[in-house]
Amino acid sequence: MGILEVQNVNKSFGGLKALQNVNLSVEEGTIHAIIGPNGAGKSTLLNCFVGKLVPDTGSVVFNGESLLGIKPYQINQAGVSRVFQTPEIFADLTVFENVMIPCFAKRDGSFEMNGWRSVSKDAEIHDRAEQMLTDVNMIDKRDMTASSLSRGDKRRLEMAMCLSQSPKLLLLDEPTAGMARADTESTIELLKEIQERLKITMAIIEHDMGVVFSLAQKISVLAQGTVIAEDLPDAIRSNPKVKEAYLGTAAED
Length: 253
Known about the structure:
By secondary structure, the chain is α/β, with parallel strands linked by helices. It folds into two domains: 1-79 and 167-253, P-loop containing nucleotide triphosphate hydrolases (Rossmann fold, 3-Layer(aba) Sandwich); 88-166, no CATH class. The protein is 37% helix and 24% strand. Helix 3 crosses helix 5 (123-135) and helix 6 (151-163) runs parallel beside helix 7. The two termini are 31 Å apart. The model is unreliable at 249-253 (pLDDT under 50).
């Protein structure tokens, strides 16, 4: 059984069936990609993982516990962190301050900005934040304002913020969207390094086939709200149904 198990998930919006009997299994310690053309249901499925949507029927089980009906922050506390298409960072704070905030929240369960002065002197938080920035090769940019970073470095910063919460599962929603090729390649290498070093499970929704085949150890293909294939990358690449449903129209997604 995988660390994330999805069984018979259905979700409709009015008369539109966004998800139909979706089944997939994400094995612990792997990078699992979820791909499909526009309108296939990828974002709807991801939102069922993080508590933004509740399926009409079916189950979503993480680490042996159901994720259905619990709040997004509780899902995060259970060990699931989501990385959005646009990096979720505090633009006006420094790189170092950005990472200190989730480090403090992880330790104490909350953070109030009026506590910033005492937090900044906390040796435990200081050391943790430094380690996270070192892990994503950002320690030399610790004093830069986050808004001044490149798109790729903003993604690295967001990854440091996520990792500070010690997640068991990272959900990445098109992590290279809008990036120049150099930043895309840098992000691919970062994700490989994180997965190899920390053995964190990752589920990635991504439209860039170069990214998918560079990273994924297993791929699920969604088309018209249902999984039409789940297999190793080489098998997915040569699957006729996948070629017809997705790879042949990759430029449109």
